[in-house]
Specification:
Layout: H1 17-24, H2 27-41, H3 57-64, H4 69-79, E1 84-87, E2 90-93, H5 95-107, E3 117-122, E4 129-135, E5 138-143, E6 158-163, H6 174-193, E7 204-210, E8 231-237, E9 243-247, H7 248-263, H8 274-283, E10 285-290, E11 295-301, E12 305-311, E13 317-324
Antiparallel strand pairs: 1-2, 3-4, 4-5, 5-6, 7-8, 8-9, 10-11, 11-12, 12-13
Helix pairs in contact: 6-7
The structure holds zinc ion (3 copies).
Length: 331
Amino acid sequence: MTQTGFTPDLDLDGLSPDEAFAILGNEIRLEIIRVLWREDAAHEYDDGSDTAETMSYSELQQEVDIDDNGKFNYHLSQLAPHFIRRTDNGYRLSGAGKQIARTVIAVSGTDYLDFSTELEQNCPLCGAHVEATYEDQWLRIRCTECDGVFGDQAPTGTLFLTTYPAAGLASRDPEQALAAGLYRCALDITYLMYGICRECAGHISSSVTVCDAHENRGGQPCAACGTPFQVWADMRCDTCRFAKRLPVEIFTTGLIMATGLIDNREMDIHSPSFDEAIDLLQNRVETTVSKDPLRVLITIEDETASFTVTLDDDMNVISFDRSSQTDVVTS
Ligand SMILES: [Zn+2]
Ligand SMILES: [Zn+2]
Ligand SMILES: [Zn+2]
């Protein structure tokens, strides 16, 4: 088995991403994965160990409903060993096979999902009504009156925007989905800031863009760059291209929200609230940029603590200080 560099030459179990796409682009093979996943779904220890529920050859063939032995054998052999494994007890999904099944589950269900609705809370910026919309796996919270937070970098009125699997909406109302979306977003950002891809565990490459002629107009978009934020960062996975482009303040507040939650003994998934997150971003963050070398210094203050994060042009955290508001603040 060779494990060479990253895409496009990624080669695990001798299977390149192109070969994996080719293998999975077949109805019968996907049906085999679906049947084995369904069999395994009832398995008590699902992902707790390498064990998985197995099916005998004949059971599997019957469930997949292919009478032609040669044909069935061919498709089975295409999936093994990367997506399915043959054991003494029969066939089961491999770790990669389970992940394919979970991905299909996460992305299914958008056709019947009507999620656009007005929320009970008001816009933290202007007090107008706020609505949630869901399209193409994106959950968006938008103000019905004002321009929102992101200037021309997001659709007008956007207050919050995140990718969100449809399967996770089925059992949540919009308020709960927003709280869960905020929490997921903070955790995504934490992964990125630690240089790890949440989707594939690959390495993250980052770059920052600074508006040199930036005008701070109290939350209004700057004439030069079209957004209220002077520094934006791109963080992208080298392997699977999972990416986020956001103001550095959001990367930093996301990191602090998530790590702050970890510190909190009374951890609550619904905390901080959407209003608190927007308040943090709009009113409690100060950003200073210095050049040669580029340093972005972000100070965030809430009621109990003050955080100072210094970033370089690759989004590395050069320093991270936390002091409680009663301490003498040094930086
Ligand atoms: Zn508004
Ligand atoms: Zn600007
Ligand atoms: Zn990745």
